[in-house]
Amino acid sequence: MSLAIVHSRAQVGVGAPAVTVEAHLANGLPALTLVGLPEASVKESKDRVRSAILNSGLEFPARRITLNLAPADLPKDGGRFDLAIALGILAGSGQIPAITLDNVECLGELALSGAVRPVQGVLPAALAARDAGRTLIVPRDNAEEAALASNLTVIAADDLMQLVSHFNGRNPISPFNANGLLLVSKPYPDLSEVQGQVAAKRALLVAAAGAHNLLFSGPPGTGKTLLASRLPGLLPPLDEREALEVAAIQSVASHVPLKNWPQRPFRHPHHSASGAALVGGGSRPQPGEITLAHHGVLFLDELPEFDRKVLEVLREPLESGEIVIARARDKIRFPARFQLVAAMNPCPCGYLGDPSGKCQCGSDQIQRYRNKLSGPLLDRIDLHLTVAREATALSHEPQAGENTASAATKVAEARELQNRRQGCANAFLDLPGLREHCRLSGEDERWLETACERLTLSLRAAHRLLKVARTLADLEQAKDIERAHVAEALQYRPSAQ
Predict the structure, then answer these.
(1) Long-range contacts for 326-332 (Cβ within 8 Å, ≥24 apart)?
(2) What is the three-class DSSP state of 145?
(3) Which residues form a coiled coil (predicted)?
């Protein structure tokens, strides 16, 4: 009777809980039993593992084999456990030393030939293996992804026989060399390419400096999409923790985690997207657009064309920075700390207020169009700006002082000031932080209260207005919020819808 234990990792949301693969070989009629709440794809691993072992020139033991994937109450799916199961059987039958598997974790799907195929969600498992102090064995196609976890020893495997030789000490596999792994990010679109729109660029600068949500409204062709695409270039670079979180989400979502590493994501879903596509879901919950935009920008063009029920699901993650997908068996928590930038036309035809006079929309049509957006959703957008049409100039050349580099410098200085003062961007201040860092003088506070009453702003809108005013002060490196900062912040708030 022989028992071998191999460590592996499951995938639950963007987490990687530990799974212990126990292989027990006993005397009796040859049989292989797999227990531990395996899904159909895991149950099929029995046949893949058998063929992989035999086709690698190894012996598949003709004994009664019991495989347990613990913990038993955690659902397991996919082919990620194939490699751990095969190594457990080989260790239990004495073909590799069981002791060599003590400080190792394995991920990988096996081909019938014994080749090791890549799996998704490797980066969260790599981060967890690093924290557990173990070496991680992964398919070679996943090695670069796993190596993003610093201070982790990664073994890249091509096939099962190569690993058997490694564990038997005949041909040890050298740890994967991650030198030169970090890629050079491609340049962001430059702000200087936007013609005119001084007020819109100012709003974009304020949004970047304080991580505020932003809504552009204006006729077609005024540059709303062009402006929104420039926002990621103004934001501070991702630090290592943020970059790993973004890459881990891409890994789980089957995207290539090294793509544009380590740039902030910019997601631009079509207005026909469903609620599940936007916030995540499915029978096996997958991250949606708001999670794929984590630490980046979510741009919703033609905002009123989205289904209202779809937009309403944004209200909770805009406040909490995460989304919880509830299913009968479990609740999956996905991060969703994104910056929302939206664009819309002022009316169904898009030309309300345009000097061309093209608009033929009646007042009822305009009201129905605007009613597609609820007050609570608009309340959560800090900056509202109308983008007017600029004079046509086909030979426009970039103007000095309005490029992305100079604006990003101002944003970085403002963010550094905020991090030193409160440890987060102004948009993420909680109520105690708001009271401590966004204080006004008595006279300015009374003036603001009067203005909020006249504009019929909610208390939430007033708090967000104060955060914007704090950002305006930070852009000027001012210690206190002054009347001019509050007045400018008020210009970005519409009256109650």
Answers:
(1) 327/283, 327/285, 329/75, 330/12, 330/75, 332/12, 332/13, 332/280, 332/285
(2) helix
(3) none
Q: Which two tokens stand for residue 93?
A: 């039958």
Helix 160-167 and helix 82-92, axial crossing angle in degrees, nearest 10 = 50
What's the one-letter identity of residue 222?
T
Q: Going residue by residue through the chain, which has 497 residues, state the pLDDT in tens, using 9 for 90 and above.
A: 589 999 999 998 899 999 999 999 999 899 999 999 888 888 899 999 999 999 999 999 999 999 999 999 888 888 999 999 999 999 999 999 999 999 999 999 999 999 999 999 999 999 999 999 999 999 999 998 999 898 999 999 999 999 999 999 999 999 998 765 555 567 788 898 888 889 999 999 999 999 999 999 999 988 899 999 999 999 999 998 999 999 999 999 876 666 667 889 999 999 999 988 999 887 778 899 999 999 999 999 999 999 999 999 999 999 999 999 887 677 889 999 999 999 999 999 988 888 878 888 998 999 999 889 998 999 999 999 999 887 666 555 655 557 899 999 999 999 999 999 999 999 999 999 999 999 999 999 999 999 999 988 889 999 999 999 999 999 999 999 999 999 999 999 875 44
Nearest to 490 by CA among 461, 54, 251, 17: 461
Which residues contact residue 322 at a Cβ distance below 8 angstroms, ignoring those fewer than 6 apart? 333, 334, 335, 336, 337
Alpha carbon distance 67, 3 (integer Å) = 10
CA distances from 196 to 119, 191, 235, 403 (A): 48, 10, 21, 12
- Residue 164 structure tokens: 């058997």
Domain 2-167 belongs to what architecture? Answer: 2-Layer Sandwich (3.30)
Sequence-distant (6+) residues with CB within 8 A of 354 are: 219, 389
Question: What's the CATH superfamily of 191-425?
Answer: P-loop containing nucleotide triphosphate hydrolases (3.40.50.300)
Cα–Cα distance measured from residue 269 to residue 456, given in angstroms and rounded to the nearest whole number: 33
Tell me the whole-structure pTM to 2 decimals: 0.90
Q: Which CATH number fits domain 429-497: 3.40.50, 3.90.226, 3.30.70, 1.10.8?
A: 1.10.8
Structure tokens at 263: 């740039």
User: In the structure encoding, which two tokens stand for residue 376, read together?
Assistant: 């609570």
Residues 6+ apart with CB under 8 A from 57: 161
Distance CA 293, CA 335 (A): 9
